[in-house]
Amino acid sequence: MKRRLKKKNIFILITIVLLFIFLPKKINKIHNINYVINGFNVSENIKDNKTYIVVNDKYYYLLNEKHKKIVRNIELYSDEEYSCIYLTFNNDTNSNDLICEKDGINYLYSTSAINSETLNNNCNELVNNNKIKLLYNDKTTYEKKDLFKIYTNNIQKDYIFYLTSYKGLYAIDKSIEEINLFDLDVYEQDVKIFTKDKYIIANYNQKYEFNSLYVVDLKTKKISTIKFKYNISFNSNMFLYENNVYIKDLENDKTYIVDINNKTLKLTNISNNYQYIKEYKLLKQIDNTYYLEKDSKLYKSNYNSLDGITYLFDLNDKNNLQIGSSYICWILDTDITCYYKNSYQLLASSDEFKFNKTINYHIYEK
C-alpha cells in the first residue's frame, strides 16, 4: 500500500513539474488581451509569433513580432467619409501609416490616394515629421545597364533584384551581374517563370520547338539544365499552381508538370484555376495573409473570413504584379515600382517595359 502511494506521489510531482515547465510557454505563445486606450477598445491576439491588433472592432493592424499590451496611444483623424487612427507603441516605435475605415473596409492612407482636403490637412503634421512616407522615389542615383536604369539605392539589403534581359538575366545586389543564357538576343520570351528561389525558362537557343529548360538558382546564381524527350512549341506559357511549375503547350493542347528537383518533365491534365474567398479572387497566400483581387482592385486580409479586409490600390494598367512577404511590386508604363514597408520605391526604368511585355523581374528574399 505504501509503495502504491509513493508511486502515486511521484507521478503527481512529475506532472506538476511538467506543468510548470510547459504551461508558461503555452501562455506566452497564445494570448488574447482586451484593454482601453484613450477611449478605444483594443484587442490583441498572438498567433504564430505575430500580434494581431483590432481597435473598436473595425481597425485591423498586424505586427510581425510577439507583443503584449503594445499600444500606448491612439490618435483619431476623420472627415465626413473616412475615420483614421494612428498608433503609438510601448517599444518607442510608431505606426508608419494611418489605418482608415469606410463602409467596413480598411484603407492605408499612404497608398489609397484618399481625396479629402480635410483629412489631408489634418495629417500634414504626420507627413512633415516623416512618420508617414507617401512616396519614396530616389530618381537621382542609378546605374545604366544596356537599355535600363537601375536605382541601386532603392534596392533593399535583404533582397536581390532580378531583371530579365534579352540574353538572360541581371542579378542586382551590391552590383549588377549578368547571367547569360542565350547566344543571341531573344526579344520575345513567353515561356518562363520565377518561383520563390528559381528562374525557369525555355531554351531559346533552339528554333521552333524546345526540349530543354534552363534553371537559375536565385540564391547561388548557378545555372542547370533540364532535358526531356518531348518537343514543345514556343507557343506555350508557364504557370504556378499549388507550388508546382506547369507548361501549357497551346499549339498542341498539352500540359506538362516540371519536377525541378529531379530534373524531369511529364504530361498532366491539370488546368490553371484560381481559388475564391466569397467574391474575391485569391491571388496569393503568405502565411496567414491573403492577397485578393476584385474589380481590378488589390486587397489583403489577415483572416480567411475577410474580417479586416484592407484595400491597397487599383490594379488598372499595372502588370507583372509580384507579391512577397514584405513587398508588392508592379510594372506601370516605364517603371518597376515596389511598395515596401509603407513606402514606394522605384527599382528600374526603361521604355522597353512599355513595348515588350515579356520582360519580367523578381525579388529574391535572402
Question: Could you explain how this protein is built, in words?
Answer:
This protein has helices at 2-29, 109-112, 117-128, 352-355; strands at residues 32-37, 40-47, 50-55, 59-63, 71-78, 83-89, 99-102, 105-108, 143-145, 148-150, 159-164, 168-172, 176-180, 192-194, 198-202, 209-217, 223-233, 236-241, 244-249, 254-259, 264-268, 275-277, 280-286, 289-294, 297-301, 310-314, 319-323, 327-332, 335-340, 343-349, 361-365. It is mainly beta. It has a nine-stranded mixed beta sheet. The protein has a six-stranded antiparallel beta sheet with strand order 9-10-30-29-28-27. A four-stranded antiparallel beta sheet has the order 1-2-3-4, with no helix packed on it. A hairpin with a 3-residue loop joins strand 14 (192-194) and strand 15 (198-202). The chain starts with a helix and ends with a strand.
In short:
The protein is mainly beta. It has four helices and 31 strands. Helices cover 13% and strands 48% of the residues.
Write the layout of secondary structure elements.
Elements lengths: L1 H28 L2 E6 L2 E8 L2 E6 L3 E5 L7 E8 L4 E7 L9 E4 L2 E4 H4 L4 H12 L14 E3 L2 E3 L8 E6 L3 E5 L3 E5 L11 E3 L3 E5 L6 E9 L5 E11 L2 E6 L2 E6 L4 E6 L4 E5 L6 E3 L2 E7 L2 E6 L2 E5 L8 E5 L4 E5 L3 E6 L2 E6 L2 E7 L2 H4 L5 E5 L1
Parallel strand pairs: 8-26
Antiparallel strand pairs: 1-2, 2-3, 3-4, 5-6, 6-7, 7-8, 9-10, 10-30, 11-12, 11-31, 12-13, 14-15, 15-16, 16-17, 18-19, 19-20, 20-21, 22-23, 23-24, 24-25, 25-26, 27-28, 28-29, 29-30
Distinctive features:
366 residues, mainly beta, nine-stranded mixed beta sheet, 4 helices, 31 strands, elongated
